[in-house]
């Protein structure tokens, strides 16, 4: 099995948490949904030096992969 590894799925930090109506105003989650729900994608590289952003990114990825 081969999967695509996506780098820069959040546009190097230029995607931020505001404005997308499909994900409750959260453009980070909307971007993660777009990338992680693509059938061929296996992983997404997301970096940060801010612990709060890391927690937020983990939660957004969890929600993108397991919608309620």
What's the short version?
It is built from 2 helices and 2 strands.
How would you describe this structure to a colleague?
It is built from two helices and two strands. The radius of gyration is 12 Å and the shape is globular. The mean pLDDT is 80. A two-stranded parallel sheet has the order 1-2. It starts with a strand and ends with a helix. It is of the alpha+beta class and 68 residues long. It has one domain (4-65). 37% of the residues lie in helices and 13% in strands. 19% of the residues are buried.
Overall pLDDT, averaged? 80
Number of domains: 1
Strand order, sheet with most strands? 1-2
Helix count from the secondary structure assignment: 2
Based on CA atoms alone, the radius of gyration comes out at 12 Å
Note the beta-strand portion.
Answer: 5-15%
Q: What structural class do you assign from the helix and strand content?
A: alpha+beta
The counted number of beta strands is 2
What's the oligomerization state?
single chain
- Write the H/E string, N to C: EHEH
Helix content: 25-40%
Biggest beta sheet attributes: 2 strands, parallel
Q: What is the first-to-last residue Cα distance?
A: 28 Å
Q: Write down the overall geometry.
A: globular
Low-confidence runs of at least 5 consecutive residues? none
Search tags:
two-stranded parallel ribbon; alpha+beta; 68 residues
Helix and strand layout, with pairings?
Layout: E1 4-7, H1 27-36, E2 41-45, H2 51-65
């Amino acid at each position: 099995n081969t999967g695509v590894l996506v780098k820069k799925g959040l546009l190097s930090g230029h995607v931020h948490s505001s404005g997308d109506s499909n994900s409750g105003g959260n453009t980070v989650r909307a971007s993660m949904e777009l990338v992680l729900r693509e059938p061929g994608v296996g992983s997404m590289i997301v970096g940060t030096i801010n612990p709060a952003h890391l927690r937020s990114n983990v939660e957004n990825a969890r929600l993108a992969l397991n919608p309620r």
